[in-house]
Amino acid sequence: MAGDGRVFQVLLGAHSLTEPEPHKRLYRVRAQFPHPGSNIHNNKDDLLLLQLEEKAELNAAVQVLPFQREDRDVAADTVCDVAGWGTISHSGRQPDKLYQVERPVISRDVCNHRTRHDHTITEKMMCTDSRRRDTCKVVHDQSHTKDR
């Protein structure tokens, strides 16, 4: 529950937000654990762990994602899968279906070039070639960043 009394829920197993699906299920959130270094003014340490009130049922549509356990950079040219329901147009319209794209990682040196992100990409961030495609928003340069 949020500090203001609102109940948070997580929707797992969904590919569509509106269509019925056999593995789609809402779970109540028991607790939220923000990264100790996070702050609302930037994307630094932008991570929030959620504890559900009950164990999620794992199936073909709900799987545990592997977590990188060592602090190392993802090599340039590694192709990463990214998925989300972020905005898909300038109007901020959100899709009904989950979007997924594959994007190659760009080295931090290349990404930090003045014509891209001009030294704003930190050691805790990675950068991918967006080719104007992204699951979070339409981007207008050739690179996009995500916290690792």
From TrEMBL:
<dbReference type="Pfam" id="PF00089">
    <property type="entry name" value="Trypsin"/>
</dbReference>
<keyword id="KW-0732">Signal</keyword>
<protein>
    <submittedName>
        <fullName>Complement factor d</fullName>
    </submittedName>
</protein>
<dbReference type="GO" id="GO:0004252">
    <property type="term" value="F:serine-type endopeptidase activity"/>
</dbReference>
<dbReference type="InterPro" id="IPR043504">
    <property type="entry name" value="Peptidase_S1_PA_chymotrypsin"/>
</dbReference>
<dbReference type="InterPro" id="IPR001254">
    <property type="entry name" value="Trypsin_dom"/>
</dbReference>
<keyword id="KW-1015">Disulfide bond</keyword>
<keyword id="KW-0865">Zymogen</keyword>
<keyword id="KW-0964">Secreted</keyword>
<feature type="domain" description="Peptidase S1">
    <location>
        <begin position="1"/>
        <end position="137"/>
    </location>
</feature>
<dbReference type="GO" id="GO:0005576">
    <property type="term" value="C:extracellular region"/>
</dbReference>
<dbReference type="InterPro" id="IPR009003">
    <property type="entry name" value="Peptidase_S1_PA"/>
</dbReference>
<dbReference type="GO" id="GO:0006508">
    <property type="term" value="P:proteolysis"/>
</dbReference>
